[in-house]
C-alpha cells in the first residue's frame, strides 16, 4: 500500500506517514489506535509490538489456522479467493 493510500485510510497526509516511517515524528494516540485496528490488534497489543515484544495471535485466528490445515484443497482455494477479494476491495477503497 502506498503512503498516500495508507494516509487516506487514516485521514492523514502522505507526508505524515513519511515522517512516521522515517522516525521523524510519532503518530498520536488516536492514529496509533487506528493503525492498531487496521492491523487487527488492540492499541495495547500494538504498543507492545512497537516496544519489540512479540504479539500473540488472537485465539480466533489460531483456531481458524488450525482448521484450515485439515480442509480439502478445494475449500482452501475458496478461502484464498475470499481473502484476495477482501484485499482487492480494501485497495480499491483506498484508491489504489
Short description:
This protein is mainly α. Helices cover 70% and strands 0% of the residues. The longest helix has 21 residues, at 73-93.
Oligomer: single chain
CATH architecture term of the largest domain: Orthogonal Bundle
Low-confidence runs: none
SSE pattern, N- to C-terminal: HHHHHH
Helix/strand/pairing category? mainly alpha
Instruction: Report the CATH topology name of the largest domain.
Output: 434 Repressor (Amino-terminal Domain)
Straight-line distance between termini? 8 Å
| Structural domain count | 2
Report on the structure:
This protein has helices at residues 3-10, 14-22, 29-38, 43-50, 59-69, 73-93. By secondary structure, it is mainly alpha-helical. It folds into 2 domains: 3-50, lambda repressor-like DNA-binding domains (434 Repressor (Amino-terminal Domain), Orthogonal Bundle), CATH 1.10.260.40; 59-93. α1 crosses α2 (14-22) and α3 crosses α4. It is flat and about 50 Å long. 3% of the residues are buried.
Spell out the blueprint of helices and strands.
Elements: H1 3-10, H2 14-22, H3 29-38, H4 43-50, H5 59-69, H6 73-93
List keywords for this structure.
434 Repressor (Amino-terminal Domain), mainly alpha, 96 residues
Amino acid at each position: 500500500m502506498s503512503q498516500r493510500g495508507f494516509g487516506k485510510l487514516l485521514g492523514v497526509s502522505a507526508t505524515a506517514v513519511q515522517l512516521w516511517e522515517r522516525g521523524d515524528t510519532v503518530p498520536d494516540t488516536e492514529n496509533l489506535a487506528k493503525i492498531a485496528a487496521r492491523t487487527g490488534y488492540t492499541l495495547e497489543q500494538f504498543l507492545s509490538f512497537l516496544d519489540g515484544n512479540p504479539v500473540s495471535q488472537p485465539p480466533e485466528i489460531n483456531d481458524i489456522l488450525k482448521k484450515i490445515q485439515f480442509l480439502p484443497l478445494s475449500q482452501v482455494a475458496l478461502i484464498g479467493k475470499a481473502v484476495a477479494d477482501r484485499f482487492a476491495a480494501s485497495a480499491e477503497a483506498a484508491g489504489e
